[in-house]
Design a protein that fits this description.
The chain has about 100 residues and is mainly alpha-helical. Helix content is about 80%, strand content about 0%.
């Protein structure tokens, strides 16, 4: 299932004229706004890293959208982003074995 979602995500990435970095920043902001689950953030870890985003960029997005979406939702997103990063690292370690 995760592989199919990654493929769907890749297709939608190709259908915009935004540069990859801007697109990923916008997508993270949208995930925060809809209170997305950890799995949705996980789908964006690889593309975000490929686009050159850093943890600081993600934090900047959270700070920027907090006045609009609310501090509790931004704080919830911070936890989910950390969980997604932890999962991505765990998957990478497993794949390297």
């Amino acid at each position: 299932m995760l592989e199919a979602l990654v493929e769907i995500n890749a297709v939608s990435l190709a259908r915009t004229e935004l540069d990859r970095r801007s697109l990923m920043l916008v997508r993270i902001a949208a995930l925060v706004a809809v209170d997305a689950p950890t799995s949705s953030y996980l789908l964006h870890v690889g593309p975000s890293v490929d686009a050159g985003l850093t943890a600081q960029d993600a934090e900047d997005v959270l700070v920027a959208v907090a006045p609009i979406v609310g501090a509790p939702r931004a704080a919830s997103a911070a936890v989910k982003i950390a969980e997604a990063l932890d999962l991505a690292i765990s998957f990478a370690i497993e794949e390297s074995r």
